[in-house]
Specification:
Strand order of the largest sheet: 4-3-1-5-11-8-12-10-9
Largest sheet: 9 strands, mixed
Strand content: 15-25%
Radius of gyration: 19 Å
Order of helices and strands: EHEEHEHHHEEEHEEEEHHEEHEEE
Distance between the termini: 47 Å
Length: about 300
Protein backbone atom coordinates (compact mmCIF):
# COMPACT_ATOMS: atom_id res chain seq x y z
CA UNK A 1 0.00 0.00 0.00
CA UNK A 2 1.45 3.36 -1.07
CA UNK A 3 -0.12 6.81 -0.71
CA UNK A 4 0.38 9.53 -3.30
CA UNK A 5 1.02 12.87 -1.55
CA UNK A 6 0.96 16.11 -3.55
CA UNK A 7 2.31 19.21 -1.80
CA UNK A 8 1.69 22.75 -3.03
CA UNK A 9 4.32 25.41 -2.33
CA UNK A 10 4.96 28.99 -3.43
CA UNK A 11 7.94 31.13 -2.32
CA UNK A 12 8.14 29.24 0.97
CA UNK A 13 11.09 26.84 0.94
CA UNK A 14 11.73 27.24 4.68
CA UNK A 15 8.14 26.37 5.54
CA UNK A 16 8.17 23.47 3.07
CA UNK A 17 11.36 22.19 4.72
CA UNK A 18 9.55 22.29 8.08
CA UNK A 19 6.60 20.33 6.68
CA UNK A 20 8.70 17.65 5.00
CA UNK A 21 11.00 17.14 8.00
CA UNK A 22 7.97 16.75 10.27
CA UNK A 23 6.36 14.30 7.84
CA UNK A 24 9.51 12.17 7.68
CA UNK A 25 9.77 12.22 11.49
CA UNK A 26 6.13 11.34 12.24
CA UNK A 27 5.11 9.11 9.32
CA UNK A 28 5.08 5.35 9.93
CA UNK A 29 2.54 3.82 7.53
CA UNK A 30 1.70 3.55 4.69
CA UNK A 31 4.67 4.13 2.41
CA UNK A 32 4.35 7.20 0.22
CA UNK A 33 5.32 8.93 -3.00
CA UNK A 34 5.59 12.73 -2.68
CA UNK A 35 5.29 15.18 -5.58
CA UNK A 36 6.01 18.81 -4.73
CA UNK A 37 4.37 21.31 -7.09
CA UNK A 38 6.03 24.67 -6.55
CA UNK A 39 6.67 28.07 -8.07
CA UNK A 40 8.70 31.18 -7.31
CA UNK A 41 8.67 34.84 -8.21
CA UNK A 42 12.43 35.49 -8.30
CA UNK A 43 15.86 33.87 -8.21
CA UNK A 44 16.24 34.36 -4.46
CA UNK A 45 13.23 32.18 -3.70
CA UNK A 46 14.47 29.66 -6.28
CA UNK A 47 17.75 29.43 -4.36
CA UNK A 48 15.74 28.37 -1.33
CA UNK A 49 14.13 25.49 -3.23
CA UNK A 50 17.45 24.53 -4.78
CA UNK A 51 18.89 24.27 -1.26
CA UNK A 52 15.98 22.09 -0.14
CA UNK A 53 16.32 19.85 -3.18
CA UNK A 54 20.01 19.33 -2.42
CA UNK A 55 19.14 18.37 1.15
CA UNK A 56 16.65 15.79 -0.12
CA UNK A 57 18.63 14.59 -3.13
CA UNK A 58 19.11 11.09 -1.70
CA UNK A 59 15.40 10.59 -0.96
CA UNK A 60 13.91 8.91 -4.01
CA UNK A 61 10.37 9.13 -2.62
CA UNK A 62 10.24 12.91 -3.18
CA UNK A 63 10.21 14.72 -6.53
CA UNK A 64 9.99 18.44 -7.24
CA UNK A 65 8.03 19.88 -10.17
CA UNK A 66 8.27 23.59 -10.87
CA UNK A 67 5.39 25.21 -12.69
CA UNK A 68 6.37 26.79 -15.98
CA UNK A 69 5.16 29.92 -17.75
CA UNK A 70 3.54 27.99 -20.60
CA UNK A 71 0.08 28.74 -19.28
CA UNK A 72 -2.72 26.22 -19.54
CA UNK A 73 -5.46 27.10 -22.00
CA UNK A 74 -9.13 26.94 -21.09
CA UNK A 75 -10.88 25.30 -24.00
CA UNK A 76 -14.14 26.67 -25.33
CA UNK A 77 -15.78 23.29 -24.87
CA UNK A 78 -14.94 23.39 -21.17
CA UNK A 79 -16.83 26.66 -20.79
CA UNK A 80 -19.97 25.03 -22.18
CA UNK A 81 -20.17 23.34 -18.80
CA UNK A 82 -22.12 25.86 -16.74
CA UNK A 83 -20.09 25.26 -13.61
CA UNK A 84 -16.84 25.91 -15.44
CA UNK A 85 -18.35 29.05 -16.96
CA UNK A 86 -19.41 30.18 -13.50
CA UNK A 87 -15.94 29.58 -12.06
CA UNK A 88 -14.33 31.36 -15.00
CA UNK A 89 -16.35 34.54 -14.77
CA UNK A 90 -16.85 34.69 -11.01
CA UNK A 91 -13.16 34.48 -10.21
CA UNK A 92 -11.86 36.10 -13.41
CA UNK A 93 -9.91 32.88 -13.73
CA UNK A 94 -6.83 33.11 -15.88
CA UNK A 95 -4.05 30.56 -16.04
CA UNK A 96 -0.61 32.03 -15.38
CA UNK A 97 1.21 28.69 -15.48
CA UNK A 98 0.76 25.01 -16.26
CA UNK A 99 -0.51 24.30 -12.73
CA UNK A 100 -3.65 22.45 -13.79
CA UNK A 101 -2.10 20.27 -16.47
CA UNK A 102 0.84 19.51 -14.17
CA UNK A 103 -1.45 18.38 -11.35
CA UNK A 104 -3.60 16.32 -13.70
CA UNK A 105 -0.56 14.59 -15.19
CA UNK A 106 0.88 13.80 -11.76
CA UNK A 107 -2.38 12.15 -10.73
CA UNK A 108 -2.00 9.80 -13.69
CA UNK A 109 1.74 9.25 -13.37
CA UNK A 110 1.77 6.35 -10.94
CA UNK A 111 -0.42 3.43 -9.97
CA UNK A 112 -1.22 4.50 -6.41
CA UNK A 113 -4.94 4.26 -5.61
CA UNK A 114 -5.22 6.97 -2.97
CA UNK A 115 -4.12 10.60 -2.82
CA UNK A 116 -3.63 13.29 -0.20
CA UNK A 117 -2.86 16.98 -0.70
CA UNK A 118 -0.85 19.26 1.59
CA UNK A 119 0.08 22.93 1.66
CA UNK A 120 3.52 24.07 2.73
CA UNK A 121 2.46 26.01 5.85
CA UNK A 122 1.68 22.95 8.00
CA UNK A 123 3.57 20.66 10.37
CA UNK A 124 2.96 17.08 11.49
CA UNK A 125 2.72 16.83 15.27
CA UNK A 126 1.57 13.26 15.94
CA UNK A 127 2.45 9.90 14.37
CA UNK A 128 0.67 8.71 11.23
CA UNK A 129 0.26 4.95 11.26
CA UNK A 130 -2.60 3.92 8.97
CA UNK A 131 -3.28 0.24 8.37
CA UNK A 132 -4.79 -1.47 5.35
CA UNK A 133 -8.24 -1.45 6.97
CA UNK A 134 -8.41 2.35 6.62
CA UNK A 135 -7.89 2.16 2.87
CA UNK A 136 -10.22 -0.80 2.52
CA UNK A 137 -12.86 1.29 4.30
CA UNK A 138 -12.39 4.11 1.75
CA UNK A 139 -12.44 1.66 -1.15
CA UNK A 140 -15.82 0.26 -0.08
CA UNK A 141 -17.31 3.65 -1.05
CA UNK A 142 -14.65 5.52 -3.06
CA UNK A 143 -17.03 8.38 -3.93
CA UNK A 144 -18.45 8.55 -0.44
CA UNK A 145 -15.62 8.27 2.08
CA UNK A 146 -12.44 10.07 3.12
CA UNK A 147 -9.91 10.01 5.95
CA UNK A 148 -8.75 13.26 7.59
CA UNK A 149 -5.49 13.75 9.47
CA UNK A 150 -6.32 17.29 10.57
CA UNK A 151 -9.21 16.71 12.96
CA UNK A 152 -9.36 15.28 16.46
CA UNK A 153 -11.62 15.01 19.46
CA UNK A 154 -12.53 18.43 20.86
CA UNK A 155 -11.23 20.42 17.89
CA UNK A 156 -12.89 23.16 15.85
CA UNK A 157 -16.29 23.08 17.49
CA UNK A 158 -16.81 19.33 17.32
CA UNK A 159 -20.48 18.50 17.78
CA UNK A 160 -22.49 15.44 18.75
CA UNK A 161 -22.47 13.99 15.23
CA UNK A 162 -18.84 12.90 15.74
CA UNK A 163 -18.74 9.36 17.10
CA UNK A 164 -15.75 7.56 18.55
CA UNK A 165 -15.38 3.85 17.83
CA UNK A 166 -12.26 2.29 19.32
CA UNK A 167 -9.29 4.42 18.18
CA UNK A 168 -11.06 6.30 15.39
CA UNK A 169 -13.73 8.94 15.00
CA UNK A 170 -16.49 9.02 12.38
CA UNK A 171 -18.82 11.79 11.21
CA UNK A 172 -20.99 12.99 8.34
CA UNK A 173 -19.65 16.12 6.61
CA UNK A 174 -23.13 17.08 5.49
CA UNK A 175 -24.45 17.15 9.05
CA UNK A 176 -21.95 19.88 10.00
CA UNK A 177 -21.51 23.54 9.10
CA UNK A 178 -20.09 23.83 5.61
CA UNK A 179 -17.30 26.24 6.56
CA UNK A 180 -16.00 24.09 9.42
CA UNK A 181 -13.32 21.42 9.33
CA UNK A 182 -16.06 18.89 10.08
CA UNK A 183 -18.23 20.08 7.19
CA UNK A 184 -15.79 20.92 4.37
CA UNK A 185 -15.84 17.79 2.17
CA UNK A 186 -12.84 18.54 -0.04
CA UNK A 187 -9.62 20.03 1.28
CA UNK A 188 -5.98 20.32 0.26
CA UNK A 189 -5.03 20.02 3.93
CA UNK A 190 -4.35 16.37 4.78
CA UNK A 191 -7.46 14.50 3.65
CA UNK A 192 -7.05 11.09 2.00
CA UNK A 193 -9.29 10.21 -0.95
CA UNK A 194 -9.66 7.48 -3.50
CA UNK A 195 -7.73 8.75 -6.49
CA UNK A 196 -10.26 7.78 -9.18
CA UNK A 197 -13.00 10.33 -8.31
CA UNK A 198 -10.40 13.05 -7.71
CA UNK A 199 -8.80 12.48 -11.12
CA UNK A 200 -12.27 12.53 -12.68
CA UNK A 201 -13.08 15.94 -11.15
CA UNK A 202 -9.67 17.44 -11.92
CA UNK A 203 -9.89 16.43 -15.57
CA UNK A 204 -13.38 17.81 -16.11
CA UNK A 205 -13.38 21.07 -14.14
CA UNK A 206 -11.13 24.10 -14.33
CA UNK A 207 -8.82 25.56 -11.67
CA UNK A 208 -5.60 27.54 -11.84
CA UNK A 209 -3.98 27.44 -8.37
CA UNK A 210 -4.44 25.62 -5.04
CA UNK A 211 -7.15 28.01 -3.84
CA UNK A 212 -9.34 27.75 -6.92
CA UNK A 213 -8.65 24.01 -6.96
CA UNK A 214 -9.97 23.57 -3.42
CA UNK A 215 -12.85 26.02 -3.79
CA UNK A 216 -14.08 24.80 -7.17
CA UNK A 217 -13.71 21.10 -6.43
CA UNK A 218 -15.36 21.48 -3.02
CA UNK A 219 -18.34 23.20 -4.69
CA UNK A 220 -18.67 20.27 -7.07
CA UNK A 221 -18.22 17.66 -4.35
CA UNK A 222 -21.00 19.27 -2.33
CA UNK A 223 -23.32 19.38 -5.32
CA UNK A 224 -22.79 15.63 -5.80
CA UNK A 225 -22.83 14.81 -2.07
CA UNK A 226 -19.53 12.99 -2.47
CA UNK A 227 -17.07 12.15 0.33
CA UNK A 228 -19.68 12.66 3.03
CA UNK A 229 -18.47 9.94 5.39
CA UNK A 230 -15.43 11.05 7.36
CA UNK A 231 -13.01 9.03 9.43
CA UNK A 232 -10.05 10.24 11.46
CA UNK A 233 -7.80 9.56 14.41
CA UNK A 234 -8.79 10.63 17.89
CA UNK A 235 -5.95 13.18 17.87
CA UNK A 236 -4.97 15.40 14.94
CA UNK A 237 -1.75 14.44 13.19
CA UNK A 238 -1.10 17.81 11.57
CA UNK A 239 -1.67 21.51 12.26
CA UNK A 240 -1.69 24.53 9.96
CA UNK A 241 0.47 27.57 10.74
CA UNK A 242 -0.66 30.44 8.47
CA UNK A 243 2.11 32.84 9.40
CA UNK A 244 1.89 34.41 5.93
CA UNK A 245 -0.25 34.38 2.81
CA UNK A 246 0.95 33.86 -0.75
CA UNK A 247 -2.35 34.13 -2.63
CA UNK A 248 -4.93 36.84 -3.23
CA UNK A 249 -7.93 34.69 -4.17
CA UNK A 250 -9.31 34.42 -0.64
CA UNK A 251 -8.64 36.87 2.19
CA UNK A 252 -7.62 34.26 4.74
CA UNK A 253 -6.27 35.29 8.12
CA UNK A 254 -2.49 35.21 8.50
CA UNK A 255 0.26 36.87 10.54
CA UNK A 256 1.67 38.55 7.44
CA UNK A 257 5.29 37.47 8.00
CA UNK A 258 7.35 38.38 4.94
CA UNK A 259 8.28 35.37 2.79
CA UNK A 260 11.52 37.07 1.81
CA UNK A 261 12.58 37.29 5.45
CA UNK A 262 11.93 33.59 5.99
CA UNK A 263 13.81 32.75 2.81
CA UNK A 264 16.84 34.70 4.03
CA UNK A 265 16.76 32.72 7.28
CA UNK A 266 16.74 29.52 5.25
CA UNK A 267 19.60 30.58 2.98
CA UNK A 268 21.53 31.56 6.12
CA UNK A 269 21.37 27.95 7.26
CA UNK A 270 18.44 27.94 9.67
CA UNK A 271 15.75 25.28 9.97
CA UNK A 272 12.43 26.22 11.53
CA UNK A 273 9.98 24.50 13.82
CA UNK A 274 6.63 25.75 15.08
CA UNK A 275 5.55 25.48 18.72
CA UNK A 276 2.88 22.89 19.47
CA UNK A 277 0.24 24.02 21.98
CA UNK A 278 -0.36 21.85 25.01
CA UNK A 279 -4.11 21.82 24.43
CA UNK A 280 -5.05 21.54 20.75
CA UNK A 281 -8.55 22.75 20.00
CA UNK A 282 -8.13 24.29 16.55
CA UNK A 283 -6.38 23.34 13.31
CA UNK A 284 -5.10 26.81 12.39
CA UNK A 285 -2.41 28.08 14.75
CA UNK A 286 -1.05 31.64 14.90
CA UNK A 287 2.17 31.36 16.92
CA UNK A 288 3.86 34.29 18.59
CA UNK A 289 7.27 32.72 18.02
CA UNK A 290 9.09 29.96 16.13
CA UNK A 291 12.20 27.93 16.84
CA UNK A 292 15.22 28.42 14.58
CA UNK A 293 17.90 25.72 14.58
CA UNK A 294 21.45 26.01 13.27
CA UNK A 295 24.72 24.23 14.15
CA UNK A 296 23.10 22.34 17.06
CA UNK A 297 21.85 25.58 18.59
CA UNK A 298 18.23 26.62 18.98
CA UNK A 299 16.94 30.14 19.31
CA UNK A 300 13.42 31.30 20.01
CA UNK A 301 12.45 33.90 17.41
CA UNK A 302 9.54 36.17 18.21
CA UNK A 303 7.21 36.84 15.28
CA UNK A 304 5.51 39.78 16.93
CA UNK A 305 8.15 42.22 15.64
CA UNK A 306 7.67 40.99 12.08
CA UNK A 307 3.89 40.66 12.17
CA UNK A 308 2.08 42.72 9.56
CA UNK A 309 0.16 45.59 11.16
Amino acid sequence: MKLHIIIFSFNRALQLDTLIRSLKAKWKNPTYKIDVVYNTTNSGFQQGYDLLKRKLSSDTSIEFHKENSCADKIRFMELLNWRNASFYYRYKMRHKSNFRSLCNSLLQANDTRHVMFLTDDAMFINPVDLNKEVFDWIDEKPYGRQFSLRVGIGMNGQNKTVKQINNNIYWDFYENKGNSNWGYPFSVDAHIYSKAPIAELFARYIYCNPNTLEGNICTLVRSKKWFGEGMGNCAASILSYPINMVQNVVDNESLGIDCGLLNRWYLDGYAMQYPVPENIDIFQQYPEYVYLDKDNRRIVKSLLHYKKR
